[in-house]
Amino acid sequence: MEESNYIYRTLAIADESAVKELLRRSFISTDWNWKYLSNPSFDPSLVAIAEENGKIVGCDHWLLRDVKLSRSSVAKAISAGDIAVDPSHRKRGIGRSLLLFQRKSILSNDRGAFLSYAFTSQELNQRLFQPASGYVPLTTSTVTYSKRWSWKQFVRRVDEVKMNVGPRDGFRGESHKRTVKIVFQVHGAPPLIIALGQGRIEAFEGNAEGVDLRVKSDLATLARLRRKDKRMRHLLKALLTGRLRISGGLLGIIGLYQNLDVLEQVFRFAL
Amino acid sequence: MSTYTVRSYQRGDEVELTRLFNETYQDYAGYAPRTPEYWRWNCLDRPDVENKGIVIVFHETRIVAYAVVGKSGNIWELCFDRAHDVEALVSLTLEKAVEYLASIGSDATTLNLPRQDSVAREACKKLGFAELPPDPETVFVSILDYARFVRLLSSINKERLRGFEGDFSIRLRDAKSGTSPFVSITLQSGQIETSSQDKPCDVLIETDTQTLNSMLFGVRNPLWALLSLKLKIHPLRKLRRVISLFSLLRLNDPWFLPRADLG
Question: Which domain covers residue B126, as residue numbers?
Fold first, then answer.
């Protein structure tokens, strides 16, 4: 199917539920009514739609708002919001065409904006935003702090994780894997115990007795390890600098190694 | 600390809260300046926030600090009056924020602060907060109209540009759809003129969109761009003038992104 089969236009009132459904199918969790409809900056003419045979297959939300460019100056700018393409219509240039449609439309109807900014990932920027509109990453002065005092909510979410992790990744019936009980001791939080292996995932707060392995670290190190980029480098660095300490018997370490993929998914879904 | 009192949000507080937000972050760029209307939508009406999650600290009758705390654990906004004891205000506000989150069964909290705010950051550390590694998901910017953007930059940097004169023309090799590939800049007797037309000039600068954006936002040094063959200058002997131009025009103020502006 050629890209030319798609029609690009702005949002109409009747499109609302189809756009929400498209975002849901694209795994973009957004409270659309709050984020866009109730937003003082919302303007339906800044939402682009890609349509094929009357079906909405792509959307891109822009908002016109003030942004501070320096201590003393405020400028009108476009804040690029959620962009989504139906999974069955991807890799056909729809995302790029939506961005170009928006760009042409904002430049032809002078809204006073001469700058656009997007909060996105490096990966999406390189694949979509940069080639279409020359977006460049900015270094900001923002520092993020975090504090954890409990794992109760995490433990509750593990039930959901069992459903997400299990069937798809062959978690069930992995009888060759060792059962391993690991305690995570993160600075400031009570010990978290996770038992894994042979179709079992259990998480609970409690005392660290009778575990196979102890993992001791801090939130900053764990945040680095959760990222996919340079993970092995971060892991080695954390081990060498003592910011990550793993202690236990050889069987515990083998158990951890065998269940590493499941453990990663438990943290990804539940944290 | 005993001179401060704390309560949660009450209708009508937003005028004072937006004043405090704009004062707290007045030295930074990158965020949407707060108006009561914007604040009501962004904080008060946010599905993640309930009124009792908006912690407000008073000194006598004046609001001196507040935090907008979401049920998700996100502290969407944290503001404090720098004329007061910042460490005491941040500590008190965050203690109340954590108390609220613990009362609704949350496990953890996350907040953003400017890197330059050493007193507030120290207060966070003392409360057991950990500084997370820089987030790879960040802000990306693109310019829609170079002539108007350069005009704005020159008005922001008017003092720095005083006495700098010249006729420059920038030619973009890969102008994006709808954007003119030309920007001409004339600086003369303290006046700055910009245009999207290709005009005769003393110095011609050829580059690409990404390099130009990077130089104007201060992400990349023009000398680096030249050495990596991303920038061509005709005549080359005007190199120092071009480096000066971009150094004087570039945005300098640090960008701070409150969590409320991210999502």
Answer: 4-132
